[in-house]
Amino acid sequence: MNIHQIRNATIVIEYAGKKFLVDPMFAEKGTLPAFGSDVGLPPAPRQNQKNPLVGLPTSIDNIIANVNAVIVTHLHLDHWDEAAIEALPKDIKVFAQNDEDATEIKNVGFQNVEVLQKDTVFEGIHLIKTKGEHGRGEILQHAGHTCGVVFKHADEKALYVAGDTVWYDAVQEVIDTHNPEIIVINAGDNQFLVGGSLIMGKDDVYEVVKAAPNAKIVTVHMEAVNHWGLSREELKSFINEKGISNVLVPEDGESYSF
After folding, report:
1. Within 10 Å of residue 48's Cβ, how many Cβ atoms?
2. DSSP 58-80
3. Nearest Cα to 14, choosing from 59, 67, 62, 56?
4. In terms of Cα–Cα distance, which of 237, 201, 225, 213 is closest to 49?
5. Rounded Cα distance, 238 and 90, in Å
6. Alpha helices in 50-189, H assignment, sequence order
7. How far apart are CA 142 and CA 120, in angstroms?
C-alpha cells in the first residue's frame, strides 16, 4: 500500500491495486472562510486568516488521476469543498458515512454514491465503517457526526483511517478488533477558543501508540486550517521526548509505502 499525504485530511491511498481519495479539499490557498465566529461557529485561533492556510503540493489533475473511489468521512468544508465537487467526475464512486451525507453528495450531481456499512466490499476490498467522536463535551453539538474506515484485503496489511475523532473507547475497540498494522490519525488538535479538542492532540496520539505499539501511525490534518492547535514540530518533539519510534509526521506531498 501507498499513503500519500496531500493536505489537511486529504490523502490518497493505493491499496490492493485500487486508488482511494479520502476527504478531498481542493480549494486554493486563502479562498475559504476561516472557521470561527464569522461563520457562526465559536471564536477560533487565527480566524483573521482565510483557509486553506497552505496550497496543494501538486495539481488537482495529478491527485484525481486514476482514482477508483472517493471516501468522504463527513461534509465539513475542510473535508469536502466546492473545488473538489467541481473537479471530480460525477460518475465516480463516492462513499459517504450516512444517508444524510449521501443525499447531499447526490444533490450536487454525483450519481454513484453508497453509504459505508460495517462491511462494505469494493473491488474485493473490505471497507469497514468505524465510529468517530469529533470532540469532547458540548463542542460535539457543533461538530456533528463523522466516521473512520478500516481497509482489509488478503494481499495487504490492515489499515485504519480514523478520521476526525479524539481518542475514546471506540478507537480502542477498533484497534482491539481489527489489529491494524497501519493507522492514519488526524492529529492537528484543532479546536475553538471554547471547548476542547475536535480531533487528536499529542496526548491522544500517545494513547494510540500505547494501544497499537506495533503499528505504523501516520499523522495528518495538520497546520492547514486556521484552528489547528498542534504543529508538526511540536508533535515531533513530543515523539522524541517519549522515545516513540512508530509515529510518522509527513509534510504535505510526502508519501509512504508499507
Report:
1. 9
2. S-HHHHHTT--EEEES---TTTS
3. 67
4. 225
5. 43
6. 60-64, 82-87, 99-107, 140-143, 169-178
7. 29
Whole-model pTM: value is: 0.97
CB 181 within 8 A of CB 258: yes
Three-state DSSP class for 132? Answer: coil
Q: How many CB atoms lie within 10 A of CB 158?
A: 17
Q: Are strands 182-186 and 216-220 parallel, antiparallel or unpaired?
A: parallel
Helix (H, G, I), strand (E, B), or coil: what is residue 204? Answer: helix
Strand order in the sheet with 18-22: 112-115, 93-96, 69-72, 18-22, 10-15, 2-7, 255-257
Task: Return per-residue pLDDT of the chain as tens, 258 residues.
Answer: 999 999 999 999 999 999 999 999 999 999 999 999 989 888 999 999 999 999 999 999 999 999 999 999 999 999 999 999 999 999 999 999 999 999 999 999 999 999 999 999 999 999 999 999 999 877 877 788 999 999 999 999 999 999 999 999 999 999 999 999 999 999 999 999 988 999 999 999 999 999 999 999 999 999 999 999 999 999 999 999 999 999 999 999 999 999
Indicate the burial class of 162 (C-beta count within 10 angstroms; 0-12, 13-18, 19 or more).
Answer: buried
The residue type at 40: G
- Phi, psi of 81, deg, nearest 5: -125, 175
